[in-house]
Amino acid sequence: MPRKANRKITESEFYMWRALFAISHADDVVSNEEIRFMMEAMEDIPFSPEQEIILKDDIKHKRDIVEMFEKISDIRDQAKFFQFARDVVHIDGDYGKAEQELLLKLKRAHLKRADVDQLIGQVELEFESEEAVPPPEKKPGKRKDILFSFRNRFLDGL
């Protein structure tokens, strides 16, 4: 059963997904695992009917990934692209030279466009909350518990 939410996908997010679909064609072989990833994304993400038509065509036909990536206007969507792209290029068990070179090229383009000061400010704001979270108790030998308490707070914020 699809888990689509009732929200609109921005143009930046849409191009993030188009770039992800394009990267599956980077090695000129679209594996069953890559197709499954793309189809599951189409089921789970609330794309408009027009966006779905374009994405279905992107599954079948190779697109210029650099062109798609350049249209990702939100720097956070670019960062999400790289998170998903790592999974996509490894999903078929073959992280080939063409895929490696392409991701490096895109990473360079991303770093040229990124305003690091702005990103740091956004990250700090995302970690701030209205209610103060007390620091975890320091107990000898409890490092693992401390790390998991931060992990749980991070996941609760998603």
Written overview of the protein:
The chain has 158 residues and is mainly alpha-helical. The chain has one domain. It has 8 helices and no strands. It has helices at residues 11-23, 32-44, 49-60, 65-70, 75-90, 97-113, 116-127, 143-156. The radius of gyration is 19 Å and the shape is globular.
Short description:
The chain has eight helices and no strands.
Question: Which descriptors would you attach to this protein?
Answer:
0% strand, 65% helix, globular, mainly alpha, 158 residues
Q: Kindly give the count of domains.
A: 1
**Rough outline:** globular
SSE string: HHHHHHHH
Counted by DSSP, the helix tally is 8
Mean pLDDT across all amino acids? 75
- Report, as a whole number of angstroms, the end-to-end distance: 22 Å
Radius of gyration equals 19 Å
- Unreliable spans are 123-144
Instruction: Please state the structural category.
Output: mainly alpha
How many strand units? 0
Largest sheet: none
Q: What is the share of helical residues?
A: 55-70%
- Which range does the strand content fall in? under 5%
Layout of helices and strands:
Elements lengths: L10 H13 L8 H13 L4 H12 L4 H6 L4 H16 L6 H17 L2 H12 L15 H14 L2
Helix pairs in contact: 1-3, 1-5, 5-6
